[in-house]
Amino acid sequence: MIYVNLLLEIKDNVGIITINRPKALNALNIDTINELISALKEYNADKNVRVIVVTGAGEKAFVAGADITSFPKMGRSGADQFAHIGHDLMRAIESASKPVIAAVNGFALGGGTELALACDFIYAADTAVFGLPEVSLGIFPGFGGTQRLNKNVGLGFAREMIFTGRKIPADEALRVGLANKVVPANELSNAVIKCAQEIAANSPVAIAAVKDVINRGATLPLNEGLAIERTKFAECFDTLDMKEGVAAFLERRKPVWK
Ligand code: COA
Questions:
Q1: Residues that are catalytic
Q2: Which of 43, 134, 137, 221 gives 20 to 30 Å between its CA and that of 68?
Q3: Residue 257 placed within a domain
């Protein structure tokens, strides 16, 4: 695919996807969403990529939401299709076998917060601003925010964020568990790459298995989640990565993942 709205770069096993529509504060239109889905699939299939990072171009915004300029003509069936494709994007992130980290470098409003929430976790610049302001437009979050936000911050805080549409600064996002880490804006990229490389040093097979277990378990009763954990845990013992990881430990050397 030719990417018009994204910049793609692979750096030391980390696939970096930068949403690049700075004039619209990286707002998500349909073309950008389609490109994101394609880039995620591409990096997920690329053996040189162990971790994927999603970020926004420029200093001002991660993603300032869905592209509002398309709303006036959208209508009900257009909105249904738009929500579908938004959900497809979030599913592409969650179903990727590689961890996807959101590097939130500025405004992450509406679909921006929802995109970040679909990622495995969030690192934020101290300039980041989260929020779900859709109710101020007479709509509400339609890219998964009504379902995913409460898993990170609890139902009470999620309701307050969605009902008020209030902007949440980075330090508050950290306190409520929306972001894992907040760093000065000029250190965000290094902090994310450092974390991605810590992950990339581990068994890709184990990471893929445990991502799947965590995501599937999140929507299941405990006993069903534990059953999936048990099955996948046992499966690891049949893998070359397990043999290599354990042998490397016993031989006091670094593992070499094949
Ligand atoms: N969709 C389309 N364009 C957007 C956009 C969006 N979600 N968010 C920002 N833009 C555009 C603006 O229209 C403006 O374009 P222009 O220069 O051609 O007029 C440009 O990005 C800069 O935005 P502007 O509003 O001038 O910047 P600001 O610093 O005053 O405010 C925000 C920044 C993020 C607070 C403000 O742009 C905003 O509230 N955006 C909408 C957020 C939102 O409601 N998202 C949920 C959508 S469902």
A1: 114, 134
A2: 43
A3: no
